[in-house]
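Input/output pair, single chain:
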Amino acid sequence: MMLAALAAFALALAQTAPPSPPQSAQITFSFEHPQLDPANYTLLIRQDGSGHYQSTPGPGPNSTDGIAGAPLARDIEIRDPLLSAFFQTARSHSFFAIACEAPNSHVAFTGKKTLSYSGPEGHGECTFNWSREQPLNQLADDLMAIAYTIDEGRRLATEHVHSRLSLDAELEALQEAVKDRRALELENISPELEAIANDDAVMNRARNRARALLNGSASKH
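Output:
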């Protein structure tokens, strides 16, 4: 009787307990190029838009512009419509469980790119320099543009402390990158841009560029 009562109680508890939350889908993008700085980095993007960026600097000497490479780990956030486009591409390409490298493409090496997906619907991974699937090339370009933005935030923070006269040229280059879609999701470096825009010790032209970038404009001032 006691065992039967305990079994009935356990069954009732299981029936009334809230269901477990569904597993969240996520995309991971890894990039490797030993001659670049950073030499490798990983972007993790969850379906709710939260994510994480982590990089390792190149093994070579410091860059000629004086901004030394440094490891970087930073939480990020990706918004729609870009976020939805990422997951739509993953699902329309078998969750990356495909042979995606373009054979005999004769495209110069631009970096080893690995896309992986995990979620309740499936999982997969593919690696390429240049993909036979153009949407995957576009996805990689957009993810590299996000990584560029995050690392640019590190550079701006360094220059703000150690080389304020370099900020105008750095911000001009960032404006050009935004125009060309080589820099995306600038909201992730808004603290760095705001710090520059509000610093009276920074030349006005650089402050104006930072404000323009914060306002979603890449126009020159």
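Strands lie at 26-32, 40-46, 50-56, 72-77, 112-119, 122-128. The chain has one domain: 24-56+68-214.
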